[in-house]
Design a protein that fits this description.
Blueprint (H helix, E strand, L loop, with lengths): L2 E7 L6 H14 L4 E5 L7 H5 L9 H6 L16 E4 L12 H11 L5 E8 L3 H9 L2 E6 L3 H16 L5 E8 L3 H5 L3 H8 L2 E7 L3 H7 L4 H4 L4 H12 L10
Parallel strand pairs: 1-4, 1-5, 2-3, 2-4, 5-6, 6-7
Length: about 240
């Protein structure tokens, strides 16, 4: 059964788009047929994170109008089974049309095993569209107290949107952070109010992969990349231990 997964964050700078690209790439590497949809209009960057910035990638609004068929969605040149729709260059009424997105996702479920929606940072109409249409939501946060406070508020908004399955991912976690901060995984989950799905370490190679226009999973095999693979496998129902930094 096709799963639609929305990635959101309470604030910018959490690495949400990078994680969307990396987790989706790992899903495709595991043999799934995966569609990524960049919903962060007009600040779209998912093509950069996937290493597809030189590819002609249409926007999801083109699929709404019928000018783009599902068969014409471009495939990643280096990751078979991974496809991308970008966000439009301007935030228009059409870009926030929930009913059109719902109709599109219904059709896309027939062609893809997994669909990832890269939502915007913060709250707003596209956040509401993402979380109301997704089967599950991944809330991306950094590990500092301010980010987790924002994540807690965002988690409450996710619940109000009616998304029953939601998880927390802590990104850019420094080595030994939990020990030095004197907190536990249970403390984090209690503060935010969501189950912790994974931790991704701080990794200097992440921006380098984007600069080289290369998907993270094709650029490195340590650091953030294997952490994203563990998350993808957990989303697929496999029992993968939660690596604590």
């Amino acid at each position: 059964m096709t799963q639609v997964t929305a990635l959101v964050s309470g604030k910018g700078g959490t690495g949400k788009t990078t994680l969307c690209a990396a987790i989706a790439s790992c899903m495709a590497a595991e043999g799934k047929r995966v569609l990524c949809v960049d919903l962060d209009a007009p600040l779209r960057n998912l093509d950069l994170a996937l290493g597809m910035s030189v590819e002609p990638v249409p926007s999801y609004t083109e699929a709404f109008t019928g000018s783009l068929s599902l068969e014409d969605i471009p495939e990643h040149p280096g990751v078979p089974g991974l496809y991308l729709l970008s966000a439009p260059a301007r935030l228009t009424e059409e870009a926030t049309d929930t009913e059109s997105m719902k109709t599109f996702l219904t059709k896309a479920r027939e062609c893809f095993d997994d669909i990832f929606l890269d939502g915007p940072a913060g709250l707003g109409p596209i956040f509401e569209m993402c979380t109301s249409l997704a089967d599950r939501t991944l809330l991306i946060s950094a590990g500092d107290p301010g980010s987790m406070r924002d994540a807690g508020q965002t988690a409450r908004e996710i619940a109000l949107a009616g998304c029953d399955e939601a998880y927390l991912i802590l990104n850019r976690v420094q080595r030994g952070y939990f020990r030095r901060a004197g907190i536990t995984v249970d403390d984090v989950m209690d503060q935010v109010g969501l189950r912790l799905l994974g931790l991704v370490p701080e990794d200097s190679l992440v921006p380098l992969a984007s600069a080289k226009n290369t998907a993270l999973v094709l650029y490195e095999r340590r650091g953030a990349a294997p952490a994203c693979l563990r998350i993808a496998r957990r989303l697929n129902g496999r029992r993968i231990p939660l690596a604590i930094s």
